[in-house]
Write a structure and sequence with these properties.
The chain is of the alpha+beta class. It is 35% helix and 38% strand.
Length: 141
């Protein structure tokens, strides 16, 4: 199954507007070298999407801008050293998938919420160690 997440667009859009405001009020030309690339990077990050696919014994994590993949990592259950379930923010869940050789991925803000149950089922099926923090168990109730 495929799960999707998007970047925190409200915060990024506010930051983009702040950069545009600073560009219009700017009198120094050297600030243009900082503000213009910064505004472009922030504008591009507004359109970043994250995808996670759970297939048989594989997890595929993908970062896309618009629909172009920037980063794509497929990890088998043997390559996963453990999964750490924890709480981020006030009432959001997060999973850190720790890999033996590749980068770890952090799974948060994905929808639908059945992702966390599916990851637990995936870990139990393929004998991947699970660690749950005390704060995460409070959210499970």
């Amino acid at each position: 199954m495929t799960y999707n997440a998007k970047a925190q667009r409200v915060v990024l859009f506010g930051l983009f507007l702040l950069f545009i405001l600073l560009l219009t009020l700017n009198e120094d030309t050297w600030m243009l070298y900082v503000l213009v690339p910064g505004a472009i990077v922030i504008l591009l990050t507004i359109f970043v999407n994250f995808k996670l696919k759970i297939l048989d014994s594989f997890l595929t994590f993908q970062i896309c801008i618009f629909s172009l993949p920037l980063y794509n990592r497929t990890v088998s259950s043997e390559q996963i050293s453990n999964m750490k379930f924890k709480r981020v923010g006030w009432a959001r869940k997060c999973v850190v998938v720790k890999n033996k050789k590749a980068f770890n991925f952090r799974i948060t803000n994905f929808s639908p919420d059945s992702l966390y149950k599916d990851l637990i089922d995936f870990a139990n099926k393929y004998d991947v160690p699970i660690y749950k923090t005390k704060e995460y168990t409070i959210l499970e109730k």
